[in-house]
Design brief:
Blueprint lengths: L4 H12 L12 H19 L23 E13 L6 E14 L4 E7 L2 E6 L8 E5 L3 E10 L6 E11 L12 E13 L2 E13 L5 E14 L4 E13 L3 E16 L2 E12 L3 E11 L1
Antiparallel strand pairs: 1-2, 1-14, 2-3, 2-4, 3-6, 4-5, 6-7, 7-8, 8-9, 9-10, 10-11, 11-12, 12-13, 13-14
């Protein structure tokens, strides 16, 4: 049975967003006092908020975790991939990607990443038949632990283990468990610039269902244009495998804009110029609560 992607997204959000608190009974002074105390505590907590950062918009990620007791809902409104230098059109559409993050401690957060609907289209001919696949994508379960930098300073470092749970339908995934470990760092280098990087070791599965080690690396330059607007450019590389090993490399760039201190809009483009060449524009929004 196929579920509509909008229905699946609504179901997930209903599980992640806590229910609204009950209205205050004006005739009960004890309840009024209790709710007033809770509101005061919540406001004081917000006075000590760290600057909001997200794992969206780039492939490096952020070394900073979500504050204890807070949620981040980092969503990809839409991203599109078109393969380059192919004889026939080959496109991928992703709708409504969600990275739901929750701060377990001051240095540790928990993350679930899921794409509720992915569609892949490839045109073809008699010699090379095309295909059309669509369905739910795989689920990624991640933890991020900040080793240094959450509370300030010029340098931050985090470790991020993850596992891919093969829940994809419609031929979208490879029906295999995969996982890995990633180190993420960021350094303030002056003049509103930051330098970020990541190193990853992924256990992936090829088309022959054989596991192999796929190392990844990124280098990123970020710039704060204004208090609300930022930009980045980034180089990405991974040693992937098809029939043989090859380097998958990309140059990426994007912008992020702080609509409020709790809402960030991002837009950008990934250009995979070596390996499986493709262009991937994206737009997304994230909020904290």
């Amino acid at each position: 049975m196929h579920h509509h992607p909008i229905f699946l997204t609504i179901c997930l959000l209903s599980l992640l967003i806590p229910p609204l608190s009950h209205a205050v009974d004006a005739g009960n002074p004890d309840e009024n006092h209790s709710n007033a105390w809770k509101l005061s505590t919540f406001e004081n907590h917000h006075h000590n908020l760290r600057e909001m950062t997200t794992d969206r918009g780039d492939l490096t990620g952020t070394p900073f975790t979500v504050m204890k007791g807070f949620f981040h809902l980092e969503t990809g409104i839409f991203d599109y991939e078109r393969r380059l230098h192919t004889e026939h059109s080959h496109e991928t559409f992703n709708w409504g990607e969600i990275n739901a993050r929750y701060g377990l401690t001051d240095a540790l957060d928990f993350q679930l990443i899921w794409r509720p609907y992915t569609e892949v289209r490839k045109d073809g001919d008699t010699a090379d038949p095309g295909f059309h696949k669509s369905g739910v994508n795989d689920l990624f379960v991640r933890f991020k632990y900040n080793l240094i930098g959450n509370e300030g300073g010029d340098f931050a470092l985090a470790v991020l283990p993850f596992v891919k749970v093969p829940v994809a339908t419609g031929g979208i995934g490879n029906d295999m468990w995969e996982g890995g470990l990633k180190l993420i760092s960021q350094k303030k280098i002056g003049g509103n610039f930051t330098f970020g990087s990541s190193l990853g070791a992924n256990i992936s599965v090829d088309e022959d269902e054989s596991s192999y080690l796929r190392p990844t690396a990124t280098a990123q330059l970020g710039f704060e244009i204004t208090e609300k607007l930022g930009a980045f450019t980034e180089i990405y590389a991974s040693w992937s495998k098809d029939d043989e090993r090859y380097w998958q490399t990309a140059w990426n760039f994007g912008l992020d804009y702080d609509l409020t201190e709790h809402i960030i809009l991002d837009v950008g483009l990934f250009w995979f110029f070596r390996g499986e060449e493709a262009l991937t524009p994206f737009i997304g929004i994230s909020w904290r609560f």
